């Protein structure tokens, strides 16, 4: 019996052992859960670490790509600059040879394509590693600021009579206008010295600028629609009128508001700047550095203009003649009685003409283009250019009578009546018309005359009923034949070959 009960538990013993059993079971379960938790945390950390490594790798790759793209862009810009420099020296020049290795990259391609006569498109491609950047840039060749005016004077011009000037002005000196002097259609008027507009009229294109390095005297004068007026001296506007375009501003050192009528169009007072916006001395530097003699001398080796010699002067009629670049030295004439030696010009010109003259030039008759949209005449003169309209122009020195267009007795050269020393008397009864780009030491106009284009001279003496009109088409037409120092390069567009957006 005893052996039969061996190995069996009494009910009390079972009850006493169950709590221990469950305790051991819970302990084992807790150990298993902790292991799983540790494994899960380890896995998460590994995933997170892997992600960090991957992100770091991607970031480094992106940074490297960004550096390479930036280097490629800089290389493309360098290619553009190389092409611009070549075009500045010769607008018909081709691009430099490629590839050009620079640093860790290269300029892989540069092309230059004509858009029109004055515009070129540059395509430059830079590569750094696998990165590529290409730029398309358009550059335009235009005239230097000294030619972007109706009148550019190296000194104070002498204006008298009924003179009308339409266009910009660049004056390295003082400017006096009055009741008979009219300035219109000006985008920019720059006067280094004083501007005396007493009883005068100045019309600035709406939003344009009037810049005066000295004092502005506008007593009983009228100045209309500047967007910006700068007077580095003082403003005397007693009984005068200055009407600004909308949004106009002004500067003068004095904080006292100018007298007279000084208002914005359809508005009130004009705001004053605390300081000047423009450096007037810098703007007039081109007018201060005019050098017609030096420029003319540079053309001595060019073909001589095929002129007709008439006594103490040369004559040339452009009608039917072949355009080109020519040089003429009028001082090679054997003058009579110390008369000024000169060339007389007239006719209708076709094509693009450039004539450098050592001596003086007189416009004998109308001088006009055959096709105003493409023809041009540039006169570079180290002496005087003279335009005489209706009225008497008397250059006398001695006896005798010379009538330049008469068919009288011939005693000399040409169809002129000459006896001994010459007295030349020209009677013109019509308005003289001239279309040209003029760069000279001195410019004179008298009688009724209309001068289109631009006139640049160290000194001016303009009277009578003279009109000077800035002709931008004629100025643009001159770009291909102008010397390099009278031409400037301007970037008109700059973009990537393929736009990002």
Automatic annotation (TrEMBL):
<feature type="region of interest" description="Disordered">
    <location>
        <begin position="390"/>
        <end position="429"/>
    </location>
</feature>
<dbReference type="Pfam" id="PF23981">
    <property type="entry name" value="DUF7305"/>
</dbReference>
<feature type="compositionally biased region" description="Low complexity">
    <location>
        <begin position="406"/>
        <end position="429"/>
    </location>
</feature>
<feature type="domain" description="Type 4 fimbrial biogenesis protein PilX N-terminal">
    <location>
        <begin position="31"/>
        <end position="81"/>
    </location>
</feature>
<dbReference type="InterPro" id="IPR025746">
    <property type="entry name" value="PilX_N_dom"/>
</dbReference>
<dbReference type="InterPro" id="IPR055729">
    <property type="entry name" value="DUF7305"/>
</dbReference>
<feature type="domain" description="DUF7305">
    <location>
        <begin position="320"/>
        <end position="474"/>
    </location>
</feature>
<protein>
    <submittedName>
        <fullName>Uncharacterized protein</fullName>
    </submittedName>
</protein>
<dbReference type="Pfam" id="PF14341">
    <property type="entry name" value="PilX_N"/>
</dbReference>
